[in-house]
Every structure is written in structure tokens, then in C-alpha cells.
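Exercise 7b. C-alpha cells:
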């Protein structure tokens, strides 16, 4: 029996086959690398979009909360400003009444002019401190300690004119705020 011996392999042919195998391996690796890169890039883009969407929602929420806070502050500031203006106006009116008490008398007379002839028989009530200042002008006045300085009430048989300083200032402020808006 004879033993079979494979024919000798040509070394050049073996090197060529090895070179072709390595070349095919590099090509497959390059294709796989490109596919992996593209898949990773697509996944990164998708995750980036999701992250961006989440951050946009958070920013919108923060913007809404900030807008509501600013509106609340504006409302609070407007209220405080009205209070401050009211306090300043009261102080100015009181100061004016101390310097020129006859000014209150003019306002009372203007209010009485609005009354009809039948209602001219009336009583005028003022703060006790204002009465002391107005006595030198000879106008008969009654006192009401509940009235603030600069306020007055005119009572007739049929009507009552309530001209309390707070009410007059509130009307002035309301008119000013309406014309400002």
C-alpha cells in the first residue's frame, strides 16, 4: 500500500491566497465598521432629539412659571403702588387742610350746590379737628369723630352726601388707573 502524499504547495500561490484572505477580512471589517458607525450615529441623533425635546419641555415649564411669577409681582406691585399713592394723597390733603382750611369749606360748598333748593336746609358733619380750623369762617358745622380729617357728610331730609376723604381719593385713583390702562 502506498501512502498518499499531497502535492507540494507552491509558496507563491499560498502567499497570494493568504493575501486575498487578509484583503477580504479588511473589507468585511471596513463594512462592519461603517455599519456600526452609522447605527451609533443614528442612535446618538435619536437620543439627542429625545434629550432636546425633554429640555425644551422643561424650559417651557420654567418660562410659564416665570411668566406667572412676573404677573403676580406686577399685580402685587400695582397694589402696593396704589396704596402708596393713596397714603401720599391723604398726607397731601391733610397738609393742605392744615395750611388752607378754607379749601375744605370750598369743597363743602361745591357739594351743597348740587343739592336742590328744597335740600339747602342741611347739616354738615366734619372731623372735630377740622371744625376747629373752620370755625373762623362762620359756617355752622356739626362734628363726627368717625370722619377722618378732610372728610365731610352733608345730610338733608331726603339725601346724604358722603364725601369721606377715603372715598374721594379712591374715586380719583380709580379714574387715574382707568385712564392709564
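Sequence design result:
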Amino acid at each position: 500500500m502506498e501512502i498518499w502524499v499531497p502535492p507540494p504547495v507552491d509558496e507563491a500561490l499560498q502567499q497570494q491566497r493568504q493575501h486575498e484572505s487578509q484583503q477580504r477580512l479588511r473589507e468585511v471589517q471596513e463594512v462592519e465598521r461603517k455599519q456600526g458607525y452609522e447605527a451609533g450615529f443614528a442612535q446618538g441623533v435619536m437620543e439627542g432629539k429625545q434629550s432636546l425635546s425633554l429640555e425644551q419641555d422643561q424650559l417651557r415649564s420654567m418660562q410659564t412659571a416665570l411668566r406667572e411669577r412676573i404677573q403676580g409681582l406686577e399685580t402685587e406691585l400695582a397694589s402696593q403702588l396704589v396704596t402708596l399713592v393713596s397714603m401720599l394723597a391723604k398726607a397731601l390733603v391733610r397738609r393742605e387742610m392744615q395750611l388752607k382750611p378754607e379749601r375744605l369749606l370750598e369743597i363743602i360748598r361745591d357739594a351743597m350746590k348740587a343739592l336742590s333748593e328744597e335740600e339747602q336746609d342741611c347739616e354738615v358733619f366734619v372731623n372735630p379737628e377740622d371744625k376747629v380750623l373752620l370755625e373762623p369762617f362762620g359756617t355752622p358745622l356739626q362734628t363726627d369723630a368717625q370722619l377722618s380729617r378732610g372728610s365731610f357728610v352733608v345730610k338733608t331730609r331726603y339725601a346724604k352726601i358722603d364725601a369721606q376723604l377715603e372715598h374721594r381719593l379712591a374715586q380719583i385713583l380709580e379714574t387715574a388707573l382707568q385712564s392709564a390702562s
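Instructor comment: Helices lie at 11-99, 102-113, 128-134, 165-180. Residues 55 and 74 are 28 Å apart (CA to CA).
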